[in-house]
Hints:
The chain has 478 residues and is an alpha/beta fold. The protein has 14 helices and 22 strands. The chain folds into two domains: 267 residues, Aldehyde Dehydrogenase, Chain A, domain 1 (3-Layer(aba) Sandwich); 192 residues, Aldehyde Dehydrogenase, Chain A, domain 2 (3-Layer(aba) Sandwich).
Amino acid sequence: MAEPFLDGETVAFPEAERLAVRNPADDSLIDSVPEGGAPAVDAAVESAQRAFGAWRDTPAARRGEILAAAAHHVLQQRDELAALLTREQGKPLREAALEITRFVHTLEHYAGLAKNIRGGYVPDLDVGAYGMIVRRPLGVIAAIVPWNFPTTLLGNKLGPALICGNTLVAKPAETTPLTTLRIAALMHEAGLPKGVFNVITGSGPATGQLLATHPQVRKVAFTGSTPVGKRLAALVADDLKRMTLELGGSDPLIVCDDADLEAAASAASVGRFFNCGQACLATKRLFVFDSVADAFIAKLVAKVERLRIGPGIAERVTTGPLHTARGRALIEAQVADALASGAELLVGGRRPEGPGLDQGYFYQPTLLLEPKPTARVACEEVFGPVLPIWRVKDLDEAIARANDSPFGLGSAIWTHDLARASFAAEHLQAGYTWVNSVNRVYDELPFGGWKQSGYGKEHGSEALDFYLETKAVVMKWR
């Protein structure tokens, strides 16, 4: 049975309730972890607090060296970690291996930024006086990470937190804790000091709430749904804790009449159906110029029909199961609502049949044409392999409809017209816009949502600002 990783070692909590970890491909029991109550949360935060002083005072360049070595050690175990991630999350092995690689690259990126943490100098504030801008770490960081990309989204928080001199307590989703626990052990094997990175297990309403509201936690870094993010923000408001929130999205993709339709169709397929559509930054609404809609839709349908559904461990599988039965039931309800609103079902729309598919949470990749603007697939975040498509007459209509959403995470446009691309980049209400590109996030660029898609930035040097305190100092020598 898996246990939390605290103070550089595995620690058992025998009295705690156990939470099952199941394989989404066949509902089989993989392992169990404890529901981390107050004893586990207190132990984890106290471990991080004890480690904070020494880690804070470690030269930043040395912190970078330690983090880089730990990342390299994790990469050497990529195959083992990918297999474990596929078992607990459900995604195909190839996607799981990419996720582990992405986690390592993020840590390496921030290790490389260690020598670039800067303050400032302001001369001649007064007679005989100058000013300094000092940047110092916050302290103990709570990282609450969801199940869809357990390691990638951990790295987004772990890298900048540690390189800035903070220590961290991570709480992975209760359904995907195993890979995170193993990574923590590997990083400590590679030389990360004990207590700098701790992992507790448990559910959000119990363990997550206790961790976020713990008085010694200085900042909460959360990725998850918008409703949960709002509740979490309210919980920590009394203490005015620092927060970064990476929340839900309903990303639009616009295909103009001058686009490379083949490439755009490939981008739409990958952007929507990667990880079985379970990504906050997935393409979730598609707007196509009417003059090319028929040709584009035919290409997209052909690509979607070629997606291979099955358990993540099977060869040549491109689409694994949804993560939970509850998630599949929600998708089915959203599709039924769209069809009732008058949408045309182009492909998919049901559970697949065949050997190895009966016990898991599988659902066919689905395309819906012209659901009403009031349909759930238009108004809600759709966290699964379903893509609604609408025809539009021009770019103005496309952008207006794309922005008609409470979310503002990512967006994309396919066009060869520089004026159209520039106009969309300036007017799409989202934290990220891709032009003629698949929706991939880069460590070099800041990432974070507008509107109800979040607060703060991850990735880029901008992320460091959310893990440091800024202090003004006046120095007077006469």
